[in-house]
Design brief:
The chain is of the alpha/beta class. The chain has a single domain (about 15-280), classed as Rossmann fold, CATH 3.40.50. Helices cover about 35% and strands about 15% of the residues. The protein has ten helices and eight strands. It has helices at about 65-70, 100-110, 125-140, 170-175, 185-200, 200-210, 215-225, 240-250, 265-270, 270-280, and strands at about 15-20, 30-35, 50, 75-80, 120-125, 150-155, 230-235, 255-260. An eight-stranded mixed sheet has the order 1-2-4-3-5-6-7-8, with helices on both faces. β1 (about 15-20) and β2 form a beta hairpin. α1 (about 65-70) crosses α10, α2 packs across α3 (about 125-140) and α3 packs across α7 (about 215-225). It is globular. It starts with 15 loop residues before the first strand and ends with a helix. It comes from Streptomyces griseochromogenes. Pfam families: Abhydrolase_6. This is Pimeloyl-ACP methyl ester carboxylesterase. GO terms for molecular function: catalytic activity.
């Protein structure tokens, strides 16, 4: 990985970081696995989780959270979707629809997790991708692990991310700044975002930022019977906690709030988010 984030937790002797290239229908997805050292073959029966980000996001955003969860014994996988960050993408709009991205995610995680059950965690528009993968698993089992253990939606952009101003602006750096606390990008973070945006396919950015969950998605999730959690940042200006609470009630899901966090709880307060996820996963013996 060319982009790194300081997790401030965990030395090399407590976790292993493994770059991945996972097969998918629209081309291999770049990813990363973080886990404790030790036995980890296809028959390993511990807890696995897959994390997917939304518009302008990347697998590296999750590293602070992944390091903390790995210390609890979980195996974590994060991916760059088609056309996102270090995963190249074609000039075919069909590759960037939510259904196509969800199928890519499911195929990649089937390979990475050896068809073992996995907890899905999606942030922003990535929450729509993860949720769609759950519905696909009901009708296209060959494209997904045999079961998904749970679904977590973090600051989900259920109603899209673009505003009226965004519709007439191609300033993605400004759009990304809105996701950070205070609406500002520090110098080092600005350089990271510029590099990431330069690598990402414009169709990936636009499709994810404009994606909206249809009523059939919520209805399908309720019918799927999967355990769900909706998490909001206490100071999120884009997806306020009253909205995440409303969505949780609509889905019949648990609701969690991460204090001291804006739209990026996995960066603003990864320790608190790790605690929320660990408690939720532990409810089914994960």
């Amino acid at each position: 990985m060319s982009e790194t984030l300081d997790s401030d937790r965990g030395d090399a002797d407590v976790r292993t970081v493994i770059p991945l290239l996972m097969p998918a229908p629209h081309g291999p997805l770049a990813g990363v696995e973080i886990r404790r050292p030790g036995p980890s073959g296809p028959h390993w029966n511990g807890s696995r989780a897959a994390l997917v980000s939304g518009a302008g996001g990347a697998k590296e955003d999750f590293l602070p959270l992944m390091h903390r969860l790995a210390e609890e014994g979980h195996r974590l996988f994060a991916v760059d979707l088609c056309g996102q960050n270090e995963t190249p993408g074609p000039d075919d709009p069909a590759a960037y629809g939510i259904d196509a991205l969800a199928t890519d995610l499911a195929v990649a995680m089937t390979a990475a997790c050896a068809r073992k059950p996995v907890h899905l965690v999606g942030h922003g528009a990535g929450a729509l991708v993860a949720a769609t993968a759950v519905l696909q698993a009901r009708s296209r089992e060959r494209f997904a692990p045999s079961t998904y253990r749970s679904l977590t939606l973090v600051a989900p952009c259920w109603d899209g991310l673009l505003t009226a101003d965004d519709a007439v602006s191609a300033d993605w750096e400004r759009r990304m700044a809105r996701q950070h606390r205070g609406g500002l990008l520090a110098g080092e973070r600005r350089a990271v975002i510029r590099q990431r945006l330069a690598r990402s396919h414009p169709m990936n950015l636009e499709h994810l930022a404009s994606a909206i969950a249809g009523p059939e998605l919520a209805a399908g999730l309720r019918a799927a019977g999967i355990r769900m959690l909706v998490v909001g940042g206490a100071e999120d200006p884009l997806v306020p906690v009253d909205r995440t609470g409303e969505l949780a009630r609509h889905l019949g899901a648990r609701h969690g709030v991460v204090p001291g966090a804006g739209h990026l709880p996995h960066q603003d307060n990864p320790g608190a988010l790790a605690g929320v996820l660990t408690a939720f996963w532990a409810e089914d013996g994960a």
